[in-house]
Amino acid sequence: MKTTINQVKNYLNKEVTIGGWLANKRSSGKIAFLQLRDGTGFIQGVVVKAEVTEEVFTIAKGLSQESSVYVTGTIVEDTRSPFGYEMQVKNIEVIHEAVDYPITPKEHGTEFLMDHRHLWLRSKRQHAVMKIRNEIIRATYEFFNDNGFIKIDPPILTATSAEGTTDLFHTEYFDQEAYLSQSGQLYLEAAAMAFGKVFSFGPTFRAEKSKTRRHLIEFWMMEPEMAFVEHEESLEVQENYITYIAQSVLKNCELELKTLDRDLDKLKNIQAPFPRITYDEAIKILKEKGFDDIEWGDDFGAPHETAISEDFDKPVFITHYPAELKAFYMKPDPERPEVVLCADLIAPEGYGEIIGGSQRIDDFELMEERYQTHNLTGESYQWYLELRKYGSVPHSGFGVGLERTVAWFSGVKHVRETIPFPRLLNRLYP
């Protein structure tokens, strides 16, 4: 019976065949221990010299790292293994023998590993991170589908910037100038006026020349937009969503979290509601912590976000930023127009901003005024203005950076490990 490693629990004390690769091995004179992987998981195969043919034991002793094999044997329980099972090997068929595999069990430098990212993905640690990433994606679709959202796919090639910045990748669209999308939000607002509650999940591009551990040039973002939803209601959706995916990862990725030595109590503590502070309160906290140069109207960088998060054991919302710091489409607070109805969700443990969101301007005249202030009067933005002309309603939305969330849940310090093939400032290979 051919099966996969993640299904061996269904074949206890039965003989099965697994197709896989040799991740590592060790041996004594009479026993060989093969660390096998097949993409679904890792399992140890035990080859006892007295219980197999001489040919099979010779093959086991001579197998090189990352050689591909069919291994046949009996599945037994193994309480010493985090996986809980191992295989008592009876036969080995070599499919392809790998020679001089470059990533050995010894330590390698980051640049070497990044140059060999196509192979580094095979390692147990990277496998665990990608499985957690996959679970977050799966749970995201589940959460939004179960809560009445429709998935809408915005274009990647656009004629405009979503946030009016210059950090864009330019390209030619026949005889027009175009950009790689930095957000699908504007298009999702249009979709929300058609379907009520929508979300997208796809790649976005930022031409920021940043080398921090939190930044990628190409990353994936989940963006919901919700008609008839105001600022406070949007915050509830955000904290419920983060709680949901955190609990899904805890439930379905226990083995991967253990592989990464993740402190599970930190994830168990991610439970709505989350604390909320205003930008004004955040400034006060920072001054008390010795950030003497920070003034009202200044934006927060990574050190500021980390310092603020230290006062909380859960993610914390920072709300009501100055309007001048935020995008043109954010709605001013009616009681205090110099700040906007927005929030950034700051993760604990120094992982920084995970979500940015706001209530959007729904008044035609105010949006037209913002267009003039931000020099957005061209035809490219006309359709977005028209959303406030034909049946405008209060609406809100937010964006979640997938890779930062994966890093946080996994306990990985740099986002380059949270995407299969990272695009960094000086890296376009492999």
From TrEMBL:
<dbReference type="GO" id="GO:0003676">
    <property type="term" value="F:nucleic acid binding"/>
</dbReference>
<dbReference type="InterPro" id="IPR004522">
    <property type="entry name" value="Asn-tRNA-ligase"/>
</dbReference>
<comment type="similarity">
    <text>Belongs to the class-II aminoacyl-tRNA synthetase family.</text>
</comment>
<dbReference type="InterPro" id="IPR002312">
    <property type="entry name" value="Asp/Asn-tRNA-synth_IIb"/>
</dbReference>
<keyword id="KW-0648">Protein biosynthesis</keyword>
<dbReference type="Pfam" id="PF00152">
    <property type="entry name" value="tRNA-synt_2"/>
</dbReference>
<dbReference type="InterPro" id="IPR004365">
    <property type="entry name" value="NA-bd_OB_tRNA"/>
</dbReference>
<keyword id="KW-0067">ATP-binding</keyword>
<dbReference type="InterPro" id="IPR045864">
    <property type="entry name" value="aa-tRNA-synth_II/BPL/LPL"/>
</dbReference>
<keyword id="KW-0436">Ligase</keyword>
<comment type="subunit">
    <text>Homodimer.</text>
</comment>
<keyword id="KW-0547">Nucleotide-binding</keyword>
<dbReference type="GO" id="GO:0005524">
    <property type="term" value="F:ATP binding"/>
</dbReference>
<dbReference type="GO" id="GO:0006421">
    <property type="term" value="P:asparaginyl-tRNA aminoacylation"/>
</dbReference>
<dbReference type="GO" id="GO:0016740">
    <property type="term" value="F:transferase activity"/>
</dbReference>
<dbReference type="GO" id="GO:0005737">
    <property type="term" value="C:cytoplasm"/>
</dbReference>
<feature type="domain" description="Aminoacyl-transfer RNA synthetases class-II family profile">
    <location>
        <begin position="130"/>
        <end position="430"/>
    </location>
</feature>
<dbReference type="Pfam" id="PF01336">
    <property type="entry name" value="tRNA_anti-codon"/>
</dbReference>
<dbReference type="GO" id="GO:0140096">
    <property type="term" value="F:catalytic activity, acting on a protein"/>
</dbReference>
<dbReference type="InterPro" id="IPR006195">
    <property type="entry name" value="aa-tRNA-synth_II"/>
</dbReference>
<keyword id="KW-0963">Cytoplasm</keyword>
<protein>
    <recommendedName>
        <fullName>Asparagine--tRNA ligase</fullName>
        <ecNumber>6.1.1.22</ecNumber>
    </recommendedName>
</protein>
<dbReference type="InterPro" id="IPR012340">
    <property type="entry name" value="NA-bd_OB-fold"/>
</dbReference>
<dbReference type="GO" id="GO:0004816">
    <property type="term" value="F:asparagine-tRNA ligase activity"/>
</dbReference>
<keyword id="KW-0030">Aminoacyl-tRNA synthetase</keyword>
<dbReference type="InterPro" id="IPR004364">
    <property type="entry name" value="Aa-tRNA-synt_II"/>
</dbReference>
